[in-house]
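Quick start: read one record
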Amino acid sequence: DGVTEVLAHRSDNLRDKFIEIPCSEDYDSHKRFEGCTPRKCGRGVTDAVISREEAERIRRIAERGLSLGGSDGGASILDLHSGALSLGKHFVNLYRYFGDKIQDIFTEEDFALYRDVRQRIQHRIAQAFGISSSAMYLTKPTFFSRMNSTGAKTTHDEYWHPHVDKVTYGSFDYTSLLYLSDYSEDFGGGRFVFLDANSNKTVEPRAGRVSFFTSGSENLHRVEKVQWGTRFAITISFTCDPEHGIGDPVL
């Protein structure tokens, strides 16, 4: 594995940490959008965009939604946009499956908070990469994840493999993660790892921490297996292509 360096410790309170790295060629095989498609690439971590209290409120949204289902393996997802929810070894559409009961689980305030958080993260990314926030569009999939130490039952549960977001989802240009629980307090393992040529750079999750990066091969990454406890996060991704844009989820 070479050298492992911690980019962000759980105990740090980072206003803004940003590291610029050369862009990969991944963006060349897609249509370029001037003023948005990455020309400056890199990765950043901030604890100054979302408060711990807001992260806790968002985690409760995730907990309520995921309590309706959950994977048999160690990784469960909830996508408020498409309605995808892990259930056993499969996925169901939350909105079709539970119908009007959804009104008892989520509130308008939940969705307003989600939208507000998404906007703040979008502005922070735009600022870091010197692009216009209005040139970026939310794209799918954008989802909550809950991970624990249960063994994988299907390939969907195997979240720990190295991957490149732009290769996995062609529409992604900028990826962000908002952590909703604390490394070494709520769970062990489960750190986020950037896999660079000569070293690994890790981010230790803490509630309210936002990690963001350009989605190409310059940011090959993986998540360590969770050893104990439960890790909650939300992945929020952006595209420069308006055709791949999606609206915020509505109740």
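The two ends are 45 Å apart (CA to CA).
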